[in-house]
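Below: protein 1.
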Amino acid sequence: MKAAIPIVGTCVSPRFDCGSALLVAEIDGGVVTSRQEVVDGASNSLQRVAQLRELGVEVLVCGAVTGFLLRHLAANGIRVFPWVFGEASEVLERLARGGFPLMTLPVLGRGRGRGRQGRGRGGPHGHREL
């Protein structure tokens, strides 16, 4: 399987569309068999999805990502593990060992009469740290 992680420095980028490079790796039998850092030449998120497709990426592990981009990635045959943060090499090793559990994010600050209630409070709800 070919996997990619958008990175900033040595960490998973906090957002799918903000990384300066991609860590691209081949995983076979629970072992990372190769890895390379690919400079991100995309000027927008849709171009980044196209770049992933051209690289043959099957799995993407990333930080925050919009619903629109999740659907676009899925339409391009790319499985996504969003809301993952930490050192990219450790995250890659965890992916090789079996991946990440599925999760549902809470919806905060929605509904009539609540305004901005709940936004930006209570810590990193829904984030996975390694």
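Below: protein 2.
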Amino acid sequence: MPKYRNHLPQLDGGTFLTDGGLETTLIFHDKLDLPYFAAFHLMKDRDGLQALRRYYATYASIASTNRVGFVLESPTWRANPDWGEKLGYSKAALAEVNRVAVALMRELRDEQETRHSPMVISGCVGPRGDGYDPGQLMSENEAEAYHGEQISYFRDSDADLVTALTITNIPEAIGIVRAARNLGMPVVISFTLETDGRLPTGQGLQEAIEIVDSSTGHATAYYMINCVHPTHFRGVVTKSEWVKRLRGLRANASRLSHAELNEAPVLDEGNPPELGVQYADLLRQHSHINVLGGCCGTDHRHIEEIARCCKADA
């Protein structure tokens, strides 16, 4: 049974952490083979499951130590039909891997949740294409049908909500929100931004949020920013009414552009203490932002610094 689906605790305030760069850690630190950056593929065997368990347990422990909430984001960013087909998954196998991923999140919550650290399970949805490049855009209706399949797996699981990470374009975001709304799932949209603070398709963040809201009856629980360094969106997140729809940050460790990151020969881990301070600076201006994690290049060190600098009682 979903525990928080009917009332997401992060909407009541208080600090909630989430994890850092899952693929960063698995590939660069754990030296695991991750074809197509598909973390869900690790669940095919016991060793892979254990690697994922260790990863999430580390972050959940950071949250419980700091007495803050935590969002368990399932490793299913690539577990949709197109990426699943590339890895040889049938429709039934894909449904099962999404189910197992949420079950793993449930086990971790049962082990680590405390009264001071509520832990929310999120079924992670990724874009149909690449998280940096929108490629060929779907229509809103196509996106609704495409993503509805994966979201239906989460509806039938213990997932409390759906979070769509690294979304690059407005029609896909609208389709995801409509699919989740029709399936009775709370939904969060997290937009990828470029170094100019705009979506890869060129639209501004304000425009994207306002169009998605107006097209879906404000069905999105809240919005997030991901896959960009705080210095690249600081000027975009101003004291405006639309900014109140933002509740989450998953920033990159690096100041490099997406193109530069793709070509970089080594991992750019940035500066964890500096990133924590940058998050805290943003939160002093926008105290409603309370779901805090990382994206490319970040690991548990970055999240520890973000927790130290940003938890509500700091």
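The CA atoms of residues 166 and 192 lie 5 Å apart.
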